[in-house]
Amino acid sequence: MEKELSKLMGFRPEIKVVDATLRDGGLVNDFYFTDEFVKELYQTNVKAGVDYMEFGYKASKELFDVNKFGKWKFCDDDHIREITGDNNSPLKIAVMADVGRCDFRKDIQEKSNSPIDLIRVACYLHQIPAAVEMIEDAKSKGYEVSCNIMAVSNAQEADLKIALETIAKSPADILYIVDSYGSIYPEQMARLADIFLNIAAKYSKQVGIHAHDNQKLAFANTIECCGDGVNYLDATYASMGRGAGNCSIENLIGFLKNPKFNIYPVIKFLEEQMAPLKEQCKWGYDWQYLLTGILNQHPRTAIAYTKDNRKDITNFYKEITSES
Amino acid sequence: MEKELSKLMGFRPEIKVVDATLRDGGLVNDFYFTDEFVKELYQTNVKAGVDYMEFGYKASKELFDVNKFGKWKFCDDDHIREITGDNNSPLKIAVMADVGRCDFRKDIQEKSNSPIDLIRVACYLHQIPAAVEMIEDAKSKGYEVSCNIMAVSNAQEADLKIALETIAKSPADILYIVDSYGSIYPEQMARLADIFLNIAAKYSKQVGIHAHDNQKLAFANTIECCGDGVNYLDATYASMGRGAGNCSIENLIGFLKNPKFNIYPVIKFLEEQMAPLKEQCKWGYDWQYLLTGILNQHPRTAIAYTKDNRKDITNFYKEITSES
């Protein structure tokens, strides 16, 4: 497969930057962002030329206690409207809905009544039929829809292809590669992108990438995908996201050549909002995440290690490689 | 060019890992490492299967005040011997000698009298004739010799090819790509590697890569090169190195498949030696380095910003993009 990156000294106008700061970053602070932060983030995204802003999850209020999380875990349409007003901007609004953790029939309104543009349906490979049901529901209500297949590094290639064919036959618009464990190397990412892009092309779908920074490869994997033809690129301010975090939007905007993207508002937001936030909560690349990434493990052990302020990385390595 | 990475599920035994912690890291702490640190580093490298350990510079004692730097800026043979004894190990010993900043005729002994195996001659593109003189001197004394061409991101391709032909005709064994500004993206790195590898193949030379982490791409660029056929891979513990630092050896050892490499001693050294060192001095990826990297500028402004503990990244961006 021929890289398209060289062509970016021009640029590919189809490329969309998706800011996932509130959603993936919300996993760090239980979605307790101040309204000021969210308003500034929205304004910054508009100024920076970002294409989508993901506000958070549409999580089930049956399953999750609304008193134990900030409002962006639930993303009521009214809360979004308080930030965006009528959203007179080219910035589109996204939310994520997890298979099995969302009362989508009740909580997702008709698009005509909602400020949301894109519903991102997140699922594991074994949940594809349930994902298709949600995709069909969201599409029938009038939304753009993506299907974000998590933990793709653990998928058998044959299973993945069957799943992708199934989703590609559904009304979903975008198929997302999600490197949940941050364990994928760029060349492997190129092979995955190839699989996704081939099936997507057959059904006229788009492909997206959501990377994690366990091995400091989130940005590298994102631009690898970009060069391969993936158009939807997830990123977050200061890499804020669960565990090792994501591809940073400052890296990505600094890389993309489309003049609609502006790095200055991004830098300003980093200084004014992200630097103080970094004092309050912890995320980002560190040794414990590298180790779970290398081992292709879920980062939950590394997140617990971080939360406990542990420094005994040698013991941690023994724990996560023990056979008991 | 076809990537070789896939073949690494086997591995390429020609791949050499070069630990540059003392040399590039010495630029962070003026080479004031404790003897205990250096001894532990040496032992760790032996256990981890690292191929070369760079001890520091052979800097001119005329140009630099020996009282203002730790001993690894000068790398007297006797000081190396105090660490390595007779070095009864497969680990080879390297030092760097900068063109114009080294009294090489006087300070570099005959190999038969020295613990050093590899002399790394560092130069800018306009210093090639002086580099060749040093290469010839070191080779005639019996050493392996590399030529490390710095700031390659600023080179015109035509100039670079002439320089590489000149060095390839010299007795140097290894031609090194040095991304001094951390500004090169993996696809550009692949193109550079191609240029280096083609000329190297013609003259039966090896190629090396020394990356910087300004855009969090040091590891990605290193494994890009590795996949392209570059065999000498520089890395440092915890990425320790000037400014944004280098490709981390923990990432690299975690990636390489040759069973001679062991990550456990690396992790142990991180906990016991690098974690305390990180409390004392500052290096590594941060926004100021990202910005000089994106702009393909020397990181000296970002290093000064870091030293001054500045947090006004917005002003910094204005400064480095101002035309005055």
UniProtKB/TrEMBL annotation, chains A, B:
EC main class here is: lyase
Keywords, A to Z? Lyase, Manganese
Q: Which GO terms describe its molecular function?
A: 2-isopropylmalate synthase activity; 4-hydroxy-2-oxovalerate aldolase activity
One of the protein's GO biological processes: L-leucine biosynthetic process
Q: Name one Pfam family in it.
A: HMGL-like
So which domain of life are we looking at? Bacteria
Q: Where is the Pyruvate carboxyltransferase domain?
A: 15-271
Enzyme Commission number(s): 4.1.3.39
What protein name is recorded for this chain? 4-hydroxy 2-oxovalerate aldolase
Q: Which organism is it from?
A: Treponema rectale
